[in-house]
Amino acid sequence: LPEVMKRNAALAELRAKYEGFEQLLKRFLSGSLGLSRKVEMKLVCISEKEGKQLGKNGVAAVKSKKLAAAGVDQWKLQNKAIKELFNRHPVLETAFVEMAHEVIRTAAWGLMWRVGIGAALSVIDIATDINVALGFRNNGEEKIYFHAMLASLACSWGLQIFGTVLQHRGRGGRALAKELFWTALFLKSPRDAYKVASGMKHEKGALVNSFMELTFSKCVELFTEGLPAVAIQVAAAVFGRGSSPMELLSLAISLVMCGFTSAQISYDFD
Protein backbone atom coordinates (compact mmCIF):
# COMPACT_ATOMS: atom_id res chain seq x y z
CA LEU A 1 0.00 0.00 0.00
CA PRO A 2 2.72 2.61 0.78
CA GLU A 3 4.31 1.99 -2.64
CA VAL A 4 0.96 2.36 -4.39
CA MET A 5 0.30 5.60 -2.57
CA LYS A 6 3.70 6.94 -3.62
CA ARG A 7 3.15 6.07 -7.28
CA ASN A 8 -0.38 7.49 -7.42
CA ALA A 9 -0.34 11.27 -7.42
CA ALA A 10 -3.86 11.67 -6.01
CA LEU A 11 -3.26 9.21 -3.17
CA ALA A 12 0.13 10.74 -2.44
CA GLU A 13 -1.51 14.14 -2.14
CA LEU A 14 -4.14 12.81 0.28
CA ARG A 15 -1.45 11.04 2.30
CA ALA A 16 0.55 14.26 2.61
CA LYS A 17 -2.53 16.35 3.42
CA TYR A 18 -4.10 14.06 6.04
CA GLU A 19 -1.78 12.33 8.49
CA GLY A 20 -4.13 9.45 9.30
CA PHE A 21 -5.30 8.72 5.74
CA GLU A 22 -2.83 5.91 5.01
CA GLN A 23 -3.68 4.04 8.25
CA LEU A 24 -7.38 4.57 7.60
CA LEU A 25 -7.10 3.06 4.13
CA LYS A 26 -4.83 0.21 5.26
CA ARG A 27 -7.13 -0.78 8.13
CA PHE A 28 -10.24 -0.59 5.96
CA LEU A 29 -8.75 -2.77 3.23
CA SER A 30 -7.61 -5.41 5.73
CA GLY A 31 -11.26 -6.28 6.43
CA SER A 32 -10.33 -7.34 9.96
CA LEU A 33 -12.97 -6.70 12.58
CA GLY A 34 -12.19 -4.57 15.62
CA LEU A 35 -13.98 -2.61 18.31
CA SER A 36 -15.93 0.22 16.72
CA ARG A 37 -15.62 3.59 18.46
CA LYS A 38 -17.02 6.90 17.29
CA VAL A 39 -14.36 9.45 16.29
CA GLU A 40 -15.49 13.06 16.77
CA MET A 41 -12.33 14.81 15.52
CA LYS A 42 -12.21 16.90 12.39
CA LEU A 43 -10.39 15.53 9.37
CA VAL A 44 -7.33 17.77 9.71
CA CYS A 45 -6.83 16.65 13.32
CA ILE A 46 -6.81 12.93 12.56
CA SER A 47 -3.57 11.23 13.57
CA GLU A 48 -2.42 7.76 12.52
CA LYS A 49 -4.10 6.31 15.63
CA GLU A 50 -7.45 7.92 14.84
CA GLY A 51 -7.04 6.97 11.17
CA LYS A 52 -6.67 3.32 12.18
CA GLN A 53 -9.79 3.59 14.36
CA LEU A 54 -11.75 5.13 11.50
CA GLY A 55 -10.70 2.18 9.33
CA LYS A 56 -12.00 -0.24 12.00
CA ASN A 57 -15.25 1.71 12.14
CA GLY A 58 -15.56 1.42 8.35
CA VAL A 59 -15.18 -2.36 8.37
CA ALA A 60 -17.73 -2.68 11.18
CA ALA A 61 -20.21 -0.44 9.32
CA VAL A 62 -19.82 -2.40 6.08
CA LYS A 63 -20.28 -5.71 7.92
CA SER A 64 -23.47 -4.49 9.58
CA LYS A 65 -25.22 -3.80 6.27
CA LYS A 66 -26.33 -6.05 3.44
CA LEU A 67 -25.13 -3.62 0.75
CA ALA A 68 -21.65 -2.13 0.56
CA ALA A 69 -23.02 1.33 -0.32
CA ALA A 70 -25.29 1.31 2.75
CA GLY A 71 -22.35 0.38 4.97
CA VAL A 72 -20.17 3.18 3.61
CA ASP A 73 -23.06 5.62 4.02
CA GLN A 74 -23.48 4.57 7.65
CA TRP A 75 -19.74 4.98 8.17
CA LYS A 76 -19.98 8.52 6.81
CA LEU A 77 -22.93 9.44 9.00
CA GLN A 78 -21.32 8.11 12.19
CA ASN A 79 -17.88 9.71 11.75
CA LYS A 80 -17.42 13.45 11.24
CA ALA A 81 -13.99 13.07 9.60
CA ILE A 82 -15.30 10.60 6.99
CA LYS A 83 -18.22 12.88 6.14
CA GLU A 84 -15.79 15.77 5.75
CA LEU A 85 -13.45 13.63 3.60
CA PHE A 86 -16.26 12.59 1.24
CA ASN A 87 -17.63 16.13 1.03
CA ARG A 88 -14.21 17.48 0.05
CA HIS A 89 -13.39 14.60 -2.29
CA PRO A 90 -16.69 13.07 -3.57
CA VAL A 91 -14.88 10.55 -5.76
CA LEU A 92 -13.52 8.88 -2.61
CA GLU A 93 -17.00 7.82 -1.53
CA THR A 94 -17.44 5.90 -4.79
CA ALA A 95 -13.94 4.46 -4.42
CA PHE A 96 -14.64 3.24 -0.87
CA VAL A 97 -17.91 1.62 -1.98
CA GLU A 98 -15.95 -0.37 -4.60
CA MET A 99 -13.32 -1.28 -2.00
CA ALA A 100 -16.12 -2.33 0.39
CA HIS A 101 -17.41 -4.78 -2.23
CA GLU A 102 -13.99 -6.44 -2.32
CA VAL A 103 -13.71 -6.44 1.48
CA ILE A 104 -17.10 -8.16 1.76
CA ARG A 105 -16.15 -10.69 -0.91
CA THR A 106 -12.80 -11.67 0.60
CA ALA A 107 -13.15 -11.16 4.37
CA ALA A 108 -13.67 -14.27 6.52
CA TRP A 109 -17.00 -12.86 7.68
CA GLY A 110 -17.95 -11.79 4.16
CA LEU A 111 -20.34 -12.92 1.51
CA MET A 112 -18.01 -15.36 -0.25
CA TRP A 113 -17.52 -17.42 2.89
CA ARG A 114 -21.17 -17.36 3.87
CA VAL A 115 -22.53 -18.44 0.51
CA GLY A 116 -19.66 -20.88 0.01
CA ILE A 117 -20.27 -22.69 3.29
CA GLY A 118 -24.00 -22.68 2.61
CA ALA A 119 -23.51 -24.21 -0.84
CA ALA A 120 -21.17 -26.91 0.49
CA LEU A 121 -23.64 -27.83 3.25
CA SER A 122 -26.44 -27.97 0.70
CA VAL A 123 -24.60 -30.44 -1.57
CA ILE A 124 -23.48 -32.64 1.34
CA ASP A 125 -27.01 -32.62 2.80
CA ILE A 126 -28.62 -33.71 -0.48
CA ALA A 127 -26.01 -36.44 -1.00
CA THR A 128 -26.52 -37.89 2.50
CA ASP A 129 -30.32 -37.62 2.21
CA ILE A 130 -30.28 -39.60 -1.05
CA ASN A 131 -28.06 -42.22 0.58
CA VAL A 132 -30.41 -42.54 3.56
CA ALA A 133 -33.45 -42.69 1.28
CA LEU A 134 -31.89 -45.61 -0.61
CA GLY A 135 -31.27 -47.30 2.73
CA PHE A 136 -34.94 -46.92 3.61
CA ARG A 137 -35.91 -48.45 0.25
CA ASN A 138 -33.78 -51.52 0.87
CA ASN A 139 -35.50 -52.14 4.19
CA GLY A 140 -39.01 -53.40 3.59
CA GLU A 141 -40.30 -52.10 6.92
CA GLU A 142 -39.14 -48.54 6.20
CA LYS A 143 -40.42 -48.01 2.65
CA ILE A 144 -42.86 -45.40 3.91
CA TYR A 145 -39.88 -43.24 4.92
CA PHE A 146 -38.31 -43.85 1.50
CA HIS A 147 -41.47 -42.59 -0.23
CA ALA A 148 -41.60 -39.58 2.08
CA MET A 149 -37.94 -38.70 1.38
CA LEU A 150 -38.49 -39.21 -2.35
CA ALA A 151 -41.50 -36.91 -2.31
CA SER A 152 -39.52 -34.26 -0.43
CA LEU A 153 -36.57 -34.41 -2.85
CA ALA A 154 -38.89 -34.43 -5.88
CA CYS A 155 -40.79 -31.39 -4.57
CA SER A 156 -37.53 -29.50 -3.99
CA TRP A 157 -36.16 -30.47 -7.39
CA GLY A 158 -39.39 -29.55 -9.19
CA LEU A 159 -39.65 -26.13 -7.54
CA GLN A 160 -35.99 -25.41 -8.29
CA ILE A 161 -36.58 -26.29 -11.96
CA PHE A 162 -39.68 -24.06 -12.03
CA GLY A 163 -37.76 -21.19 -10.38
CA THR A 164 -34.87 -21.56 -12.81
CA VAL A 165 -37.19 -21.40 -15.84
CA LEU A 166 -38.99 -18.37 -14.40
CA GLN A 167 -35.72 -16.60 -13.60
CA HIS A 168 -33.82 -17.25 -16.85
CA ARG A 169 -36.42 -17.63 -19.60
CA GLY A 170 -35.77 -14.04 -20.69
CA ARG A 171 -32.03 -14.71 -21.24
CA GLY A 172 -32.43 -16.99 -24.21
CA GLY A 173 -32.49 -20.75 -24.75
CA ARG A 174 -28.76 -21.36 -24.39
CA ALA A 175 -28.48 -19.53 -21.05
CA LEU A 176 -31.62 -21.24 -19.76
CA ALA A 177 -30.33 -24.68 -20.77
CA LYS A 178 -27.05 -24.00 -18.95
CA GLU A 179 -28.85 -23.04 -15.74
CA LEU A 180 -31.22 -26.01 -16.01
CA PHE A 181 -28.23 -28.34 -16.34
CA TRP A 182 -26.90 -27.27 -12.92
CA THR A 183 -30.36 -27.34 -11.36
CA ALA A 184 -31.15 -30.82 -12.67
CA LEU A 185 -27.97 -32.12 -10.98
CA PHE A 186 -29.00 -30.65 -7.60
CA LEU A 187 -26.18 -28.09 -7.97
CA LYS A 188 -28.24 -24.92 -8.15
CA SER A 189 -27.09 -23.76 -4.73
CA PRO A 190 -23.34 -23.82 -5.62
CA ARG A 191 -24.13 -22.22 -8.98
CA ASP A 192 -26.06 -19.36 -7.35
CA ALA A 193 -23.41 -18.99 -4.64
CA TYR A 194 -20.70 -18.65 -7.30
CA LYS A 195 -22.61 -15.91 -9.09
CA VAL A 196 -23.18 -13.92 -5.89
CA ALA A 197 -19.60 -14.34 -4.61
CA SER A 198 -18.11 -13.33 -7.98
CA GLY A 199 -20.07 -10.07 -7.93
CA MET A 200 -22.59 -10.94 -10.64
CA LYS A 201 -25.51 -8.66 -9.88
CA HIS A 202 -28.40 -8.73 -12.36
CA GLU A 203 -27.93 -10.72 -15.53
CA LYS A 204 -29.56 -9.21 -18.61
CA GLY A 205 -32.99 -10.73 -19.11
CA ALA A 206 -33.14 -12.34 -15.66
CA LEU A 207 -36.24 -11.81 -13.54
CA VAL A 208 -34.44 -10.82 -10.31
CA ASN A 209 -30.83 -10.20 -9.26
CA SER A 210 -28.46 -13.02 -8.33
CA PHE A 211 -28.77 -12.36 -4.60
CA MET A 212 -32.55 -12.75 -4.64
CA GLU A 213 -32.23 -15.87 -6.81
CA LEU A 214 -29.90 -17.42 -4.23
CA THR A 215 -32.31 -16.52 -1.42
CA PHE A 216 -35.23 -18.14 -3.25
CA SER A 217 -33.15 -21.26 -3.85
CA LYS A 218 -32.18 -21.49 -0.17
CA CYS A 219 -35.80 -21.04 0.95
CA VAL A 220 -36.96 -23.83 -1.37
CA GLU A 221 -34.22 -26.12 -0.03
CA LEU A 222 -35.04 -25.28 3.56
CA PHE A 223 -38.81 -25.80 3.40
CA THR A 224 -39.11 -28.62 0.86
CA GLU A 225 -35.98 -30.67 1.52
CA GLY A 226 -34.11 -29.67 4.69
CA LEU A 227 -36.89 -29.49 7.30
CA PRO A 228 -38.90 -32.42 5.89
CA ALA A 229 -35.75 -34.57 5.83
CA VAL A 230 -35.16 -33.80 9.51
CA ALA A 231 -38.74 -34.72 10.41
CA ILE A 232 -38.68 -37.95 8.37
CA GLN A 233 -35.34 -39.10 9.80
CA VAL A 234 -36.40 -38.33 13.37
CA ALA A 235 -39.62 -40.29 12.80
CA ALA A 236 -37.62 -43.22 11.41
CA ALA A 237 -35.31 -43.15 14.42
CA VAL A 238 -38.16 -43.01 16.95
CA PHE A 239 -40.73 -45.33 15.35
CA GLY A 240 -38.52 -47.51 13.17
CA ARG A 241 -35.71 -49.93 13.86
CA GLY A 242 -33.38 -47.18 15.12
CA SER A 243 -30.69 -45.29 13.25
CA SER A 244 -27.40 -46.40 11.73
CA PRO A 245 -24.30 -44.18 12.05
CA MET A 246 -24.84 -42.94 8.47
CA GLU A 247 -28.45 -42.00 9.22
CA LEU A 248 -27.38 -40.14 12.34
CA LEU A 249 -24.71 -38.31 10.32
CA SER A 250 -27.30 -37.39 7.69
CA LEU A 251 -29.66 -36.09 10.38
CA ALA A 252 -26.88 -34.01 11.95
CA ILE A 253 -25.94 -32.51 8.57
CA SER A 254 -29.59 -31.69 7.84
CA LEU A 255 -29.92 -29.94 11.18
CA VAL A 256 -26.75 -27.93 10.62
CA MET A 257 -27.84 -27.01 7.08
CA CYS A 258 -31.28 -25.86 8.28
CA GLY A 259 -29.80 -23.81 11.08
CA PHE A 260 -27.13 -22.22 8.90
CA THR A 261 -29.57 -21.43 6.10
CA SER A 262 -32.08 -19.84 8.49
CA ALA A 263 -29.35 -17.75 10.10
CA GLN A 264 -27.99 -16.69 6.70
CA ILE A 265 -31.38 -15.56 5.41
CA SER A 266 -32.08 -13.73 8.67
CA TYR A 267 -28.68 -12.03 8.54
CA ASP A 268 -29.06 -10.95 4.91
CA PHE A 269 -32.49 -9.40 5.42
CA ASP A 270 -32.09 -8.01 8.95
Key structural traits:
270 residues; mainly alpha; 13 helices
Topology:
Elements (H helix, E strand, L loop, with lengths): L1 H6 L1 H9 L3 H10 L17 H17 L3 H11 L1 H9 L1 H17 L4 H28 L4 H26 L4 H12 L3 H10 L12 H30 L5 H25 L1
Helix pairs in contact: 3-4, 4-5, 5-6, 5-7, 6-7, 8-9, 8-11, 8-12, 8-13, 9-10, 9-12, 11-12, 12-13
Could you explain the architecture of this structure?
The protein has about 270 residues and is mostly helical. The chain has helices spanning about 1-5, 10-15, 20-30, 50-65, 70-80, 80-90, 90-105, 110-140, 145-170, 175-185, 190-195, 210-240, 245-270. α4 crosses α5 (about 70-80) and α9 runs antiparallel to α12.
| Computed CA radius of gyration, to the nearest angstrom | 24 Å
What is the overall number of helices? 13
Question: How does the overall form come out from the CA principal axes?
Answer: elongated
Instruction: Kindly report the average pLDDT value.
Output: 89
- The stretches of 5 or more residues where confidence is low (pLDDT under 50) are none
**Oligomeric state of this protein:** single chain
Biggest sheet statistics: none
Number of strands: 0
Q: What is the beta-strand fraction?
A: under 5%
H/E element order = HHHHHHHHHHHHH
